[in-house]
Amino acid sequence: MANTLQTIEIVGFTASNNERTCANHDCCGESLVIDAANNGVGMMLRLRLTTKNELAAYTILADDSDGCRVGFTFRSFADIHGAAYDGCVVELVEVYTSQNEDRAERRKFHTCKGYSLARVVKSNIGGDK
């Protein structure tokens, strides 16, 4: 049975602490959208269940392997849906920044240390979406 969740929240992409960096680069936890002209919209990420309650988002390299870890889903989402979404590919459709006009969006960006919405483009749940 296919899951009806279409949009996933990806957070934590501006925090390079709490293991949000990879072993190869110091900037990975801060590299998702900060310097991109389009704020990362359209970027493809792969979700990986790294622990029971941590679903991390990784960049996808040209050879289709996982690149750097750049963000996470909320822990509550990972607790419930983590195993089902492990390996799914998502595309960023909206990225909040400190320059957003909407105060609530700016607050989400700061509170979550980066906040974005992604849609599932390739799923392990009932086939591709």
Notes on the structure:
By secondary structure, the protein is an alpha+beta fold. The protein is built from two helices and six strands. Strands 1-6-5-2-3-4 form a six-stranded antiparallel beta sheet. The longest helix is centred in the middle third of the chain and has 11 residues, at 75-85. The two termini are 12 Å apart.
Entry keywords:
129 residues; 6 strands; 16% helix; 6-stranded antiparallel sheet; 33% strand; alpha+beta
Summed up, what is this model?
This protein is 16% helix and 33% strand.
Quaternary structure state of the chains depicted = single chain
- Helix percent reads 10-25%
Strand order across the largest sheet: 1-6-5-2-3-4
Quote the average pLDDT: 80
Q: Whole-number radius of gyration?
A: 14 Å
Structural class computed from helices and strand pairing: alpha+beta
Topology:
Elements lengths: L6 E5 L32 E8 L2 E7 L5 E7 L2 H11 L3 E8 L6 H9 L3 E8 L7
Antiparallel strand pairs: 1-6, 2-3, 2-5, 3-4, 5-6
